[in-house]
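Tutorial, part two.
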Amino acid sequence: MLEKFRAAKRPEIEKLMALAESGGLPPPLPGPRPSFSGAILDRAVPGERAAVIAEYKRASPSKGDINLGLSPADVARIYADNGAACISVLTEEAYFKGSLDYLDEAAQAAPGMPLLRKDFLVHPLQVAQTAAHPAAALLLIVRMLDDTALADMLRVTYDMGLEAVVEVFDEKDLDRAEVHGAHIIQVNNRDLDTLTVDLAVSERLSARKRPGRIWISASGISRPDQAARMAQLGFDAVLVGTSIMAGTDPGRTLAGLVQAKARKEGA
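Running the prediction step on this input gives:
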């Protein structure tokens, strides 16, 4: 699956290379960006409540079209009004019907809200491309990068003033993320071969969380009790897209996840 996504990004990378060679690559946006990690830490209550990163997700390979009628601006306002710590924006076009323009639209509708560019990024010029839009952070998937590329992508990301959410699927991925000093770890509960999800992945990997790291659990979280369980395991945030976007009342669904609270031991 990841190789299909990589192949779909080749035309984008070739276009960026041509722009860079001609001097036409858009410059980074000036000024500071909202703190993605800071917003998570402000909303999370360790062991009790996870911050919610709410995702603007129009479609996916596993679900097909999810909700093409909601605009990025409408969703950003709903998310900001109902307690999202950050907004994840799918920008991949071929399989998720995303667009980089959605970052701009979301930023205009919810000023100050940290935005995550969620896409399949494998080349430093894609980081530069991201920096030309109002993203606070971008996603790097460990399995799509060898060690040299992962180190380079992290360095360029930080140099551009962005934060990196480093996604892992298992212990081997986590080992590599840790070696390269990733500050924000996202555990994806989805099996890439079958596209099924299993929250046991987060259950298992949670024992490996190190002090000073921000951890996010992603995929398969749709209910408040699941969000609460992730907080109990030590996750600082959950990333939720499909269950919010597919519902009849996204704001209410999000608010329920935001308010989810784990029971304390002995309570």
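The longest helix spans residues 2-22. In part three we will examine how such features are distributed along the chain.
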